[in-house]
């Protein structure tokens, strides 16, 4: 498409690899500020609605966020079947909590995010994402460091969801993607509890990080399932890791899943149902082979690094 056919004011270049760039056309900048932790922008795009950008990196947008947040949350809750207490690390937009609060069985959600300014901005500007989740009495919002919260938390969680900033190798959040931190999360799970981690791109050029995260989690959990979702504005498929001490059914009955969702949630899902879950849990061969061949695990002594 010729540039003259596109009505944009600003192009945001999202570097996927040193050789690949996704150009996002920005029609309006809604908010631009530097928080105590990062640079934040809220923008409007022509094709995908409003978007959150942190430190120049695309986070999510109203047009296709459901293709990230539903796969992040729903497989773990469906596998658990009766989640009551759920811990979320990160999740500033509020969409992760929104997905959890669909469940009638959920009694308590704690969301821990380090940047209160981002949370406040998303609460104001992105109601399409949080859907009023911040006003639900079941939610306890904690503005603070996930490391500190986890260190003081109790063993009571049915599901823990790590929706932390991208696990960029050599990034400042490397400690949150190490064996030591994952062990701390494992120790907070109730019997039969599940951990799900957003685990980076599973594009061919970026697959190493996902494979090493999977290998790291396999040193702690006997059952780790790697799955992914294609999110158009990410420009690449995105990976997740579902972990537990009990077997995870890779071949759930779609009709049974649909009945579970009908009985125990308020509905409104756009991506997830029984058939979608069944397909999602069939890990592609290239991902299975990359994980099987990987030997390195992430620890504080040997953290993610380029």
User: What name is given to the CATH topology of the largest domain?
Assistant: Rossmann fold
Q: What value does the average pLDDT take?
A: 93
| Number of structural units classed as domains | 2
Q: Mind summarizing the main beta sheet? A: 7 strands, mixed
Provide the low-confidence segments as ranges: none
Structural classification? alpha/beta
User: Could you give the count of β-strands?
Assistant: 12
Q: In percent, how much strand structure appears in the residues? A: 25-35%
Straight-line N-to-C gap: 35 Å
SSE order: EEEEEHEHEHHEHEHEHEEHHH
Supply Rg.
19 Å
Write the CATH architecture name of the largest domain. Answer: 3-Layer(aba) Sandwich
The fourth-level CATH homologous superfamily of the largest domain is Vaccinia Virus protein VP39
| CATH classification class of the largest domain | Alpha Beta
**Strand order, sheet with most strands:** 8-7-6-9-10-12-11
Number of helices: 10
Helix amount, in percent? 25-40%
Globally, the shape reads globular
Provide keyphrases for this structure.
306 residues, five-stranded antiparallel sheet, seven-stranded mixed sheet, alpha/beta, Rossmann fold, single chain, 2 domains, 12 strands, Spermidine Synthase, Chain: A, domain 2
């Amino acid at each position: 498409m010729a540039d003259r056919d596109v009505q944009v004011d600003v192009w945001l270049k999202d570097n996927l690899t040193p050789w690949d760039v996704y150009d996002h056309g920005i029609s309006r900048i809604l908010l631009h500020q530097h928080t105590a932790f990062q640079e934040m922008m809220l923008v409007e795009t022509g094709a995908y609605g409003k978007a959150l950008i942190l430190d120049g990196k695309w986070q999510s947008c109203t047009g296709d966020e459901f293709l990230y947040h539903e796969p992040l949350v729903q497989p773990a809750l469906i596998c658990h079947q009766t989640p009551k207490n759920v811990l979320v690390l990160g999740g500033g937009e509020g969409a992760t909590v929104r997905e959890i609060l669909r469940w009638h069985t959920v009694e308590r959600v704690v969301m821990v995010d380090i940047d209160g300014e981002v949370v406040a901005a998303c609460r104001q500007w992105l109601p399409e994402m949080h859907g009023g989740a911040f006003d639900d009495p079941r939610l306890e919002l904690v503005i603070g460091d996930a490391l500190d919260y986890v260190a003081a938390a109790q063993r009571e969680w049915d599901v823990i969801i790590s929706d932390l900033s991208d696990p960029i190798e050599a990034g400042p959040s490397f400690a949150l993607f190490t064996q030591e931190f994952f062990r701390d999360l494992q120790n907070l799970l109730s019997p039969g509890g599940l951990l799900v981690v957003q685990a980076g791109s599973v594009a061919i050029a970026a697959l190493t990080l996902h494979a090493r995260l999977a290998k790291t989690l396999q040193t702690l959990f006997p059952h780790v399932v790697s799955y992914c979702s294609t999110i158009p504005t990410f420009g690449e498929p995105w990976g997740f890791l579902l972990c537990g001490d009990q077997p995870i059914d890779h071949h759930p009955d779609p009709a049974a899943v649909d009945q579970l969702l009908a009985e125990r949630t308020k509905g409104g899902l756009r991506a997830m149902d029984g058939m979608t879950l069944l397909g999602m849990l069939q890990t592609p061969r290239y991902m299975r082979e990359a994980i099987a061949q990987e030997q390195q695990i992430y620890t504080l002594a040997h953290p993610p690094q380029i």
